[in-house]
Amino acid sequence: KQEVTQIPAALSVPEGENLVLNCSFTDSAIYNLQWFRQDPGKGLTSLLLIQSSQREQTSGRLNASLDKSSGRSTLYIAASQPGDSATYLCAVRPGNQAGTALIFGKGTTLSVSS
Amino acid sequence: DGGITQSPKYLFRKEGQNVTLSCEQNLNHDAMYWYRQDPGQGLRLIYYSQIVNDFQKGDIAEGYSVSREKKESFPLTVTSAQKNPTAFYLCASSQQGVTEAFFGPGTRLTVV
Questions:
Q1: What counts of helices (H) and strands (E) characterise chain B?
Q2: pLDDT of B98 strictly over 70
Q3: Mean pLDDT of chain A
Q4: Which chain A residue has the Cα nearest residue B102?
């Protein structure tokens, strides 16, 4: 059964630092991988979607990479800001075809101090 | 404005009572999902539906029921058989798992 792990569980950095969040999954047969942001008490906001055939996606200060064969993805945040403070969740859509549901990691809670 | 709405935002349930959480989307997505989130845990899948009048159980379906009579609506009923229903419930949709999944703002259910 597919399992998703995120390390570290929590991270505190000063403003301006570049940082990397890690996500690993046990079964390399995935359809796509998605990174989300969640603020306290709120729903999830989609950040980046990487299809299984892609290696990376970029949006502004965010860059997500995917290494399907090793079961890993990273989310790189450049020049962190206090507004980046939130929980970041990684999720994979298992299988080789559409029609399955996302499986989530437990998230990394990021705190950026000014 | 396209998106997913969930209501109510907060819900209180008495012991032995059934309650229904609403989820509506106007994104014209085929697939809809219900997840439960507990403190310190990731999101866990309750039910999902790929098309109208069809749905599949997720990992924690016991004590829950759903219906999918319309493409835009996927209500979740928390029955009295669910022994620990206090949690944050999130609804999502996507276009048959090909595109991004989008989430609603969530409903916080508390047993009183």
A1: 0, 11
A2: no
A3: 95
A4: A46
Q: How far is A87 from chain B, CA to nearest CA, in Å?
A: 11
C-alpha B7/C-alpha B10 separation (Å) is: 8
Tell me: the pLDDT tens digits for B22-56?
Answer: 999 999 999 999 999 998 788 999 999 999 999 99
CB distance B50–A105 less than 8 Å?
no
Between the alpha carbon of residue B40 and those of residues A10, A15, A105, A108, the distances in Å are 11, 26, 11, 11
Q: Looking at residue B101, what is its pLDDT?
A: 94
Q: Select the residue of A98, A102, A107 nearest B96 (Cβ to Cβ).
A: A98
| Whether A89 and B43 lie within 8 Å, measured CB to CB | yes
| Cβ neighbours of B35 in A, within 8 Å | 104
DSSP bridge partners of A74: A22, A65
In this structure, the strands spanning B107-111 and B10-13 are parallel
Amino acid letter, B91:
C
Question: Is the pLDDT score of B96 beyond 80?
Answer: no
The mean pLDDT of A1-30, rounded to a whole number, is 96
* Residue written as token pair 């209180």: B12
